[in-house]
Specification:
By secondary structure, the chain is of the alpha/beta class. The strands form two sheets. The protein has a seven-stranded mixed beta sheet with strand order 3-2-1-4-5-10-6, sandwiched between helices. Strands 7-9-8 form a three-stranded antiparallel beta sheet, covered by helices on one side. The protein is globular. The two termini are 31 Å apart. The model has no long low-confidence stretch (mean pLDDT 95).
Amino acid sequence: MSEMWNGVAPAWERNAEFVDAHLAAATRTLLDAAEVGEGTRILDLAAGPGGAGLAALERIGPSGRVVLADVAAEMVAVAARRAEGRATVSTLICDQAAIDAADASFDAVISRHGLMFAADPVAAVREAVRVLRPGGVYAAATWDRRDGNPWLGLILDAVGAQFGVPFPPPAIAGPFDLDDPERLTEVLEAGGLTDVRVVSVATPMAAASLEAWWDRVPQLAGPLAMALAGMEPDVREAIHQRAISSARPLTRPQGDGIELDGSCLVAAGRRTARS
């Protein structure tokens, strides 16, 4: 998993501001759900380039702190560069299921689109609960249902149609593995959280054109980027044309460009004061 995300870290660095803009509404909802405010100590898990944790800086002020953590060292290096000069931010290389931090170290733990890639999501939540103080909040954003996210789902569908099998394969963790609110609630509760709630947030994706959409999205989706890189040029082009054709009727004008639907789920729960 770390090798896959290390491989796409340069693309994430180039597109970090775009991703943060795309997910601005979901990130605000995530930080609200985690009850992030003045003085909050936050752990941002599977942080990638650190956009969610960095967005919390205005809320926590000089007395709070943010730790940006990811299993991929190259992603952590990107996050560190983006956080350079900010005294309240530090970085950490660790897996979601094995956090290198003491018990009850944080007031809030957040994860923006990392939980669905955990080998065992319940174990990942349980580990997050361990490092939360009693009464602290864990909040995670995952992608909503596949058909509510054509900006990504259509490209995955094009790969699957090309080879006649689902993509990603069922045995591999994919972006839509936690796209059901009931399942997401079960994962958080099984991980030891109470008062779990899940909300949906619209996250449409804007692009200058369908070609610009195609150029950007595959380089950010780790499993997809690796798969496309290993294909023959004519196969990649067939997938490209299939994706563009499928997307065309689902786009709408937005400013000087186009827009495709997108949606996130934001789930949050509390570590009990007694645990």
